[in-house]
């Protein structure tokens, strides 16, 4: 009997082994139950947590230095060359986090001879007012991160444009919280559709670069919830990012990364955010306070979340449950994004052709036509015999934004490919507008002038049918512009050319809005932002009418600094003073009292009765549109109306919906509440429906710590910009 039982046991073991060999998934699930994909991300994370030692938990809540970013910094053997790494737990199948800066494309590709697509700036992409374009934007970043072996993006900037001179404004989606939240939320969706972890940053009020590591941003909670925090709330609701990156600055006296109100109360409490909070690089200031306030991961280094955190946990200063919560938030985010089940291995080759096509599509949607007197545009190649192209290295390429958003240019900097690029140096990408203008005007004489010598530029313009002046503005992380003016005497260049030729077209390649003292002297103006790797071609296509412009401004263009809520950047002493140098001189920090509350951007101009240079939501087309028949459905929370293309060209109109709250709100301005793109053929009429964003109609009640909707009369307006709203309906709306 004993012998028979032994034989049966051997047979059963052999059969089990064969079954496991034939079904490795079942075997893996048996030994690692957290690999059961039928379980929720939270259940899977809890199973892993049970297996972790204290040291392993500590290992997962801090990163490993600056890696390749700083000479002498430790570089783990499996490091992928990005901005940061959190070492995984191989024995449990938990991979390392390979983090990459990726605001407008994947950064730091050149050291390993990789290629990354440079997309238009985030501000530019937002000018498309197209959630599908935003989704595509994120998809390009996500698929190229994955191809290069990364599993976490640390892009997703959503800071609002409280100050249009902010050096990183090109990384951010403009001045309105609803437009910003919808745009960045869809970018995050696109990133995470590639099994790459998404991020949203910089939480919160990191709205200037000057003194960003020492400034104390002061704003009441109601205003914060209705503006900067509202952008994050909508972005997180739509995008479900794996992480939220807290910012360098203080908010109302506490560092953002140890701010209990922001992290515990609002983010994790009110919004029930399940992911993890990661510090901006070196934005951690404490161990116990930060841990208790809601910071889940220090990046980079281990000064606060290494041995110090371990001691705080073992001594009881930080509860074990809090450390477990940090780790659970990371692990559940990894499972939810798919980076454990679908690691980005092996690496693959980035498709540069697909990336360029996608970048061009986005660029063509985001170019904004600001002025077009006597319909000088689009240019008719059959009637133009000579064109002067002037300035901004338009014979070589297009400018890009700098700092941690800087994507490496293929072949090197287009204006100086022979030498390596340094931090803070303007980088041009090889998409020369001159080349594509010549392609679209093959029979015209197209000549280029650098624009350095005003007399030379004016002479060329005088003897040309059309003069196209390219003017650019380099902006980067770490410094703000003290002014709205174009740098390097480009205003004088435009004035000189316009004086020589009344048919002058100005193309702006800028990170931010700029003033235009010459506006009444030029025939046309196009804002091209930082247009990306296919920017030259996109610009030429719009100039010659191959593409009808449909972009609308996501930010107000002021006439001068005097019209802004704060004529000077907080704390700015010297022009474009580097923020690290500033911190050395002013370690005590300084306050930024945001007394305007929610009234910045178009809300400031409307409430103050000021006339902007160009209003929020503005953008011209090569055709015309007529709006009619506005109806509001309070029950379904929608508005419906018709748009007719009354011109001779097909085009796409961005119809914008604004609401003014009841008088009890004490608001003397409108709020953006929704929008819709509509493509129409000449003579075509369409019925358009816009869903109303509920929080655009709400006010935040600090006493109740919740949103409320006021009783009374709401005024709904629809039109082509914040200052052109032909359709108005007043209604009770609750």
Question: How would you explain this protein's 3D organization?
Answer:
The protein is α/β, with parallel strands linked by helices and 734 residues long. It is 29% helix and 18% strand. It contains 20 helices and 27 strands. A six-stranded mixed sheet has the order 10-17-16-15-11-14, sandwiched between helices. The protein has a four-stranded mixed sheet with strand order 8-7-5-18, with no helix packed on it. Strand 15 (466-473), helix 17 (490-500) and strand 16 (504-510) form a beta-alpha-beta unit. It is globular, with a radius of gyration of 27 Å. Mean pLDDT is 94; it is low at 1-22.
Keyphrases for this structure?
single chain, alpha/beta, globular, disordered N terminus
- Form type: globular
Percent of residues in beta strands? 15-25%
**Beta strands, count:** 27
Question: Span from first to last CA?
Answer: 81 Å
Number of helical segments?
20
Q: Radius of gyration, rounded?
A: 27 Å
Q: Assign the structural class, choosing from mainly alpha, mainly beta, alpha/beta, alpha+beta, or little secondary structure.
A: alpha/beta
């Amino acid at each position: 009997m004993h012998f028979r039982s032994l034989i049966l046991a051997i047979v059963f073991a052999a059969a089990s082994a064969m079954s496991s060999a034939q079904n490795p998934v079942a075997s893996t699930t048996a030994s690692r139950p957290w690999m059961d994909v039928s379980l929720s991300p939270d259940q899977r994370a809890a199973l892993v947590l049970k297996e972790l030692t204290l040291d392993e938990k500590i290992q997962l809540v801090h990163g490993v230095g600056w890696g390749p970013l700083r000479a002498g910094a430790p570089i783990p053997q499996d490091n992928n060359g990005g901005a940061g790494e959190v070492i995984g737990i191989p024995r449990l199948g938990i991979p390392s986090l390979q983090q990459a800066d990726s605001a407008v494309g994947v950064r730091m590709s050149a050291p390993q001879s990789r290629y990354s697509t440079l997309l238009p700036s985030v501000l530019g992409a937002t000018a498309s007012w197209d959630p599908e374009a935003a989704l595509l934007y994120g998809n390009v970043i996500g698929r190229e991160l994955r191809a290069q072996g990364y599993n976490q993006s640390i892009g997703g900037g959503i800071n609002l444009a409280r100050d249009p001179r902010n050096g990183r404004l090109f990384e951010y989606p403009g001045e309105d919280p609803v437009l910003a939240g919808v745009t960045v939320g869809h970018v995050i969706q696109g990133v995470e559709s590639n099994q790459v972890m998404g991020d949203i940053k910089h939480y919160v009020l990191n709205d200037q670069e000057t003194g960003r590591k020492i400034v104390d941003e002061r704003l009441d909670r109601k205003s914060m919830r209705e503006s900067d925090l509202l952008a994050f709330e909508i972005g997180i609701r739509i995008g479900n990012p794996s992480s939220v990156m807290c910012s360098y600055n203080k908010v109302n006296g506490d560092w953002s990364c140890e701010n209990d109100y922001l992290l515990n109360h609002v983010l994790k409490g009110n919004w029930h955010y399940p992911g993890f909070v990661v510090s901006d690089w070196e934005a951690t200031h404490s161990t116990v306070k930060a841990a208790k306030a809601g910071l889940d991961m220090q990046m980079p280094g281990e000064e606060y979340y290494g041995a110090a955190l371990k001691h705080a946990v073992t001594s009881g200063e930080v509860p074990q449950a809090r450390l477990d919560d940090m780790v659970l938030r990371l692990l559940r985010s990894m499972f939810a994004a798919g980076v454990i089940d679908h690691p980005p291995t092996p690496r693959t080759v980035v498709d540069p052709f697909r990336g360029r096509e996608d970048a061009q599509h986005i660029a063509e949607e985001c170019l904004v036509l600001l002025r077009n007197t006597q319909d000088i545009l689009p240019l008719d190649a059959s009637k133009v015999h000579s064109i002067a192209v002037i300035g901004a290295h338009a014979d070589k390429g297009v400018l890009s934004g700098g700092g941690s958003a800087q994507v490496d240019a293929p072949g090197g900097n287009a204006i100086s490919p022979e030498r390596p690029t340094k931090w803070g140096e303007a980088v041009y990408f090889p998409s020369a507008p001159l080349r594509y203008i010549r392609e679209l005007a093959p029979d015209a004489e197209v000549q280029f002038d650098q624009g350095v010598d005003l007399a030379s530029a004016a002479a060329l313009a005088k003897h040309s049918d059309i003069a196209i002046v390219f003017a650019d503005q380099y902006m980067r992380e770490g410094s703000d512009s003290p002014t709205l003016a174009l740098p390097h005497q480009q205003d004088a260049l435009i004035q000189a050319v316009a004086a020589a030729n009344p048919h002058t077209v100005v193309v702006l390649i800028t990170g931010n809005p700029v003033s235009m003292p010459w506006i009444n002297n030029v025939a046309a103006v196009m804002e091209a932002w930082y247009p990306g790797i296919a920017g030259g071609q996109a610009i030429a296509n719009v100039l010659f009418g191959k593409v009808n412009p449909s972009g609308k401004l996501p930010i107000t263009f002021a006439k001068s600094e005097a019209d802004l809520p704060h004529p000077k950047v907080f704390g700015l002493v010297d022009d474009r003073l580097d923020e690290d140098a500033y911190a050395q001189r002013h370690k005590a920090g300084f306050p930024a009292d945001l007394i305007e509350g929610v009234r910045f951007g178009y809300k400031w101009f409307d409430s103050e009765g000021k006339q902007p240079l160009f209003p929020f939501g503005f953008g011209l087309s090569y055709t015309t549109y007529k709006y009619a028949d506005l109806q509001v459905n309070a029950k379904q929370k929608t508005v419906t109306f018709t748009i007719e293309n009354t011109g001779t060209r097909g085009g796409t109109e961005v119809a914008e919906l604004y609401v003014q709250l009841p008088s009890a709100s004490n608001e003397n301005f409108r709020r953006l509440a929704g929008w819709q793109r509509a493509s129409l053929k000449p003579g075509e009429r369409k019925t358009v429906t816009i869903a109303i964003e509920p929080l655009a109609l709400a006010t935040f009640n600090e006493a109740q710590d919740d949103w409320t909707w006021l009783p009374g009369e709401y005024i709904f307006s629809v039109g082509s910009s914040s200052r052109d709203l032909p359709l108005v309906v007043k209604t009770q709306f609750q």
